[in-house]
Amino acid sequence: MARNLRAKTPDNDEILVYDVNATATQSFLQESQGTRVQAAVSPREVAEMSDTVITVLPEPQHVKSVFEKMLASALPAPPTTTSRLFLDCSTIDPTTSRLVASLVHASTSESSAIFVDAPMSGGVVGARAGSLTFMVGCEPDMLSKVEKVLLLMGKKVWHLGAQGAGLSGKLANNYALAINNIAAAEAMNLGLKWGLDPKTLGNLINSSTGRSWPSEVNNPVPGVVGSAPASRDYEGGFGVSLMKKDLKLAIRAAQEADARLELATKAEEVYEKVEQDYMGKDFSVVYRWLGGKE
């Protein structure tokens, strides 16, 4: 994401970066020599010196903590605009996101700071290629400003509604992804147990009603899709721990909305067990956990 932002940002704009991983920050700075990229010493410095602040963090508590640090005291006016834009691209629960939005608005006048949830889909590959899809929660009159920034890092922006709606859309999508991934692994395992050829079975499913992203793009059987993590020992891709996290967030949000999820508990059990055995692997490793033929 940062590389695409650097490559596509106008020459007269500066990029200020901060990461708890100092090695990653230094590596990015070295790549960026000769460009207008600087390292900040804290999240607060990023906020003070920026018109637009983009955050991407692992868990709800991390987002809350970072914003509390940025907003510990009143921020100065944005450097060149009348309104500072906070874009949070983390995948967290809508309730925490709305809490953070209230912190932003409570610490400033409503017109001088805008908080937008903009979770993304596309994984590591999409982030590198600049092909991410963003799901946005903001007021309609803010959309063009938000799109202008997000399209520096991705290719598609979906406006789902008011603040928090972007995350609701993302969690609904990832709930389906979690279930479809297990179903694809079970279906492929079943077919191979019956003696079917894995590539032929994959092609059949992907030209029929069983087609899904886990079967077509991220097929869990090694060799069926050459670019899928399964074909490189399930390395890279979308980690099973991240899938488990997103599933838990979706379940929590569903409970708050009083939405019935019949498959949630069993799916959560599956990812808990898979994580114990295959921590760090792509979530399609469910197939290996099932005892699938490789």
UniProtKB/TrEMBL annotation:
SUPFAM superfamilies, per database record: 6-phosphogluconate dehydrogenase C-terminal domain-like (SSF48179), NAD(P)-binding Rossmann-fold domains (SSF51735)
Top EC class, one word: oxidoreductase
Span of domain 3-hydroxyisobutyrate dehydrogenase-like NAD-binding: 164-290
Gene Ontology cellular-component terms listed: mitochondrion
Domain 6-phosphogluconate dehydrogenase NADP-binding: 11-161
Keyword Oxidoreductase: yes
Name this protein carries in UniProt: 3-hydroxyisobutyrate dehydrogenase
Pathway: Amino-acid degradation; L-valine degradation
Keywords, comma-separated and alphabetical: Branched-chain amino acid catabolism, NAD, Oxidoreductase
Taxonomy of the source species: Eukaryota, Fungi, Dikarya, Ascomycota, Pezizomycotina
Annotated EC: 1.1.1.31
Keyword Glycoprotein: no
A GO term, aspect molecular function: NADP binding
BP terms from Gene Ontology: L-valine catabolic process
Domain of life per record: Eukaryota
InterPro entries listed in its UniProt record: 6-PGluconate_DH-like_C_sf, 6PGD_dom2, 6PGDH_NADP-bd, HIBADH-like_NADP-bd, HIBADH-related, NAD(P)-bd_dom_sf
UniProt cross-references to Gene3D superfamilies, sorted A to Z: N-(1-d-carboxylethyl)-l-norvaline Dehydrogenase, domain 2 (1.10.1040.10), NAD(P)-binding Rossmann-like Domain (3.40.50.720)
Active site positions: 170
Reaction catalyzed: 3-hydroxy-2-methylpropanoate + NAD(+) = 2-methyl-3-oxopropanoate + NADH + H(+)
Similarity comment: family membership: Belongs to the HIBADH-related family. 3-hydroxyisobutyrate dehydrogenase subfamily.
